[in-house]
Amino acid sequence: MAKKRSEARKASISTPFQQARDELFSHILRCGVLEASPEHQKEWFDDTMMYLADRYEGLSAEQLVELRVLGERYCRPVVARNATVGVNA
């Protein structure tokens, strides 16, 4: 028999920074930025960060810089794409 919870779950309220971060990651996945060249990624991030700054007006300049750093790290592969993985690797 399943254990009953004595209290209802509390809804988690996201901060504007968390919402902007989630939206940035979603855009990265949908827009194909992961496969773009570094110069196209820079252009894309420039445009997207302007969009996020307009959409989330409450974010500070430091938070926008942090968002960009998170997004750029997200786009970097853990293993180089041109590295081959073999049996002896």
Number of strands: 0
Distance between the termini: 49 Å
Could you tell me the strand content as a percent range? under 5%
Order of helices and strands, N to C?
HHH
Number of helices: 3
- The residue ranges in which pLDDT falls below 50 over 5 or more consecutive positions are none
| Shape type | flat
Q: Provide the gyration radius in Å.
A: 19 Å
Mean pLDDT: 86
Percent of residues in helical segments?
55-70%
Class by SSE composition: mainly alpha
Largest sheet: none
Give the helices and strands, then pairings.
Layout lengths: L15 H16 L6 H18 L5 H15 L14
What does this structure look like?
It is a single chain. The protein is mostly helical. Helices cover 55% and strands 0% of the residues. The protein has helices spanning 16-31, 38-55, 61-75. It is flat, with a radius of gyration of 19 Å.
List keywords for this structure.
single chain, mainly alpha, 89 residues, 55% helix, 3 helices
